Amino acid sequence: FLARYSFGLRYEIFSKFRETEGFRLYATDFPASMPARQIDISGEILASRFCLCPSGTGWGMRVFHVLVLGCVPVLTQHDGKHPAVAQAFEPEVLDWSQFAVVVRRDQIDQLPALLKAVDIDAKREAIRRAWSQTVWADALPPGLRAQLHGADAFETMMRALAVRVGLEKPAGRNATVFSR
């Protein structure tokens, strides 16, 4: 199953880099890859600089989970043949290249070098400015809701729709935040 899931990309990354220094990869659907101890996924994300968010079957929450916890998403959904997969509110409002690393399928062999070349501080600063735009404020408890800065996912979605119908101009490559 793992070798076919997500067009074989997860398995390819797992098999190529599971022993690579600085990489910690778990295939939760492949028990042999899991350590004997229980894993705290949120703790692993918090302790990581980069978090792999590969393609799967359908839309997933992984990328939003890692954004909220401040980890730079590594998106491997671009096959290099077709247009890149648009992420949430892209391109109308968010420029995901500011806070994520987009890796084409033909670049997978170069993944360690690509990640070493990333300005991690700039990516994390962009995450701090953008993450709240991917969270639905009404889904949060009042205490956490009060901590959100700027627009939430609802406001961002409304802005994306306004851009699509021509009521607003696209945010452009350097705009990842708009205020309420």
Describe the structure concisely for a colleague:
This protein has seven helices and three strands, in the order ααβαββαααα. By secondary structure, it is α/β, with parallel strands linked by helices. The chain has a single domain (5-164), classed as Rossmann fold (3-Layer(aba) Sandwich).
Question: Describe it for me?
Answer:
With 180 residues, the chain is of the alpha/beta class. The chain is globular, with a radius of gyration of 17 Å. The protein has one domain (5-164): Rossmann fold (3-Layer(aba) Sandwich), CATH 3.40.50. It has a 3-stranded parallel sheet. The chain has 7 helices and 3 strands; from the N terminus they run ααβαββαααα.
Q: What are the defining features of this structure?
A:
180 residues; alpha/beta; Rossmann fold; three-stranded parallel sheet; 3 strands; globular
Order of helices and strands: HHEHEEHHHH
Number of domains: 1
Class by SSE composition: alpha/beta
For the terminal residues, how far apart are their CA atoms? 45 Å
The helix count comes to: 7
How is the quaternary structure best described? single chain
Count of extended strands: 3
Biggest sheet: strand arrangement: 1-2-3
- Low-confidence regions: 174-180
The largest pleated sheet is described as: 3 strands, parallel
Q: What integer value in Å does the Rg equal?
A: 17 Å
**In percent terms, what proportion of residues is strand?**
5-15%
What is the architecture at the second tier of CATH? 3-Layer(aba) Sandwich
Choose one word for the global shape. globular
Kindly report the average pLDDT value: 84
Highest CATH level, the class: Alpha Beta
* Overall helicity: 25-40%
CATH topology: Rossmann fold
